């Protein structure tokens, strides 16, 4: 019989899919998906694990999920099922926030083909992480199964340990398409305590490669790729090092994105998010020392600047007042079943016309007027817009002004020739 070292049974792709062990990452991308993983090791005895994860994100700041795991080790079977929730608390903008996750469920350990069966116990997980643009600090408490040294006289080859993990990561944008994220982690589960370094490379959000080194424990590599837009396939490999001698572990996973197409983030918004992160990552240049001047001179200069700004704002408001906003009395913008040329302030785009009409009705109930139309007869999307102008400069100023209104922060400008 093979002799195996003590091993924590981590989900094999936890460095790519953080929600597998930390509920504060549940549906963090705002998508609905279902993930299944099969994990096995190079051993002659029965030693497999199956995972199923379902995630639902009905609101921007809340998500829910269901997890199921079943571990088979020799004649022992251990299963877990969790109900998960995650809540987000914004701290000024969408790149500065705290995520809090909590899970509650049951576990069951029994010995196959015997009368020995443990009672069902209540278990829980807690996760918390703080993100400030590229920096993330967090930790979580979890209960994980442990495979002990398997000897001929072993009576307890599968147990569970409570413990915690803390981590710190920093995302580096190598380019618009490449993100490199180094992470340092500290894991403590009973007598299994070790540091871990992780390097994650992400390309366009569709392909990921992660390498994890746990001191005196294991080396773990995982790769993931998106295919056919809504399907992600992944694989990981773990090899014991140091004092550990457990067999190599392989994991294969498939994730299916269930998010409706009309709820997907458009490319323009993805670019805006990338640029905003990039701009806030640029360090301010240290100013050269300047000569001291009289206090009265500084106060006078500040007063003059304020007056100039007020004059500029008043002039811009007066100019915009010449161009009234769109109302129900305005002529139709549809010519030959398409939007006529001009600059449109877009609130959203929808493939299903029913969704566009539903959004317009929601705006109407909130006191705002909007319309929708297509760029041409072959266009798949119906664009909901809140205004239209012939002049690009005026349209740009109106767009910036609209973005300052509550509920219209994400409007953008579309040119139709």
TrEMBL record:
Residues 337-415 form the SPOR domain. It holds the Pfam family SPOR. It comes from the Bacteria. InterPro entries: PorP/SprF_Bacteroidetes, SPOR-like_dom, SPOR-like_sf. This is SPOR domain-containing protein.
